[in-house]
């Protein structure tokens, strides 16, 4: 490997390690000129942030502590907690309210079934959604008959409903992702790429913040095998969750 490649690899791995540190959130350091030019940052003092999705967001959170914001048990052990920890330990952390309402196994229509209680009633200022992997996985294992069109139509209806109820909310759509290992084999493709494309289409349609998780992991596998980031190809390891938190914070801060 050439010297430039070594420098690139070191830079990437250093950023990955840094993602696990609470001080990564940009409000925890001096802003760059580009950051200062943002007139209306998504995360401001007093912001309520809600993470929504499936098991990747859920990450073992304690349901009986879900109503207590800002505490690790209710936020789980994954990227949502890591991102929250970084924000909460920044200068404005004490003024933030952060919830996690991800539920393992959920597809878009199941988000819709619980949306009033688990989203709209919380009145988030920033709503982050990561959903899609179960919409294809459960189809592949015969437990669901939804299609890409079902996913896109259901997702669009959910976003429209959200904007009607919370017109000022900042929406964050996270790209569904998989890594080619574990449960993820050739049967997933090219269908899974269509789900990703639908999510990207909706992010553009609703002018949301976009978090390109698949692109992030596609780069990551240049430096460590897929199993390092997500053993079964779907659920991230602590390393994968750290990388996701870093990417989420960067996307939201720079929006």
Overall outline: globular
Give me the number of helical elements. 13
Largest pleated sheet? 5 strands, parallel
Gap from first CA to last CA: 35 Å
Beta-strand content estimate: 5-15%
How much helical structure, as a percent, in the residues?
40-55%
Mean pLDDT: 89
Structural class by SSE content: alpha/beta
How large is the radius of gyration? 18 Å
In the predicted model, the low-confidence regions spanning at least 5 consecutive residues are: 9-38
Strand order of the largest sheet: 2-1-3-4-5
The SSE order reads HHEHHHEHHEHHEHEHHH
Number of strands: 5
Strand-helix topology:
Blueprint: H1 3-19, H2 33-36, E1 48-53, H3 55-58, H4 72-75, H5 79-88, E2 97-100, H6 108-113, H7 115-118, E3 126-130, H8 133-140, H9 148-165, E4 170-174, H10 191-205, E5 209-211, H11 213-220, H12 226-229, H13 238-253
Parallel strand pairs: 1-2, 1-3, 3-4, 4-5
Helix pairs in contact: 1-13, 5-13, 9-10
Structure description:
The longest helix is centred in the middle third of the chain and has 18 residues. Strand 4, helix 10 and strand 5 form a beta-alpha-beta unit. This protein has a five-stranded parallel β-sheet, sandwiched between helices. It has 13 helices and five strands. 39% of the residues are buried. About 12% of the residues have low confidence. The protein has 255 residues and is α/β, with parallel strands linked by helices. Helix 5 packs across helix 13 and helix 9 runs parallel beside helix 10.
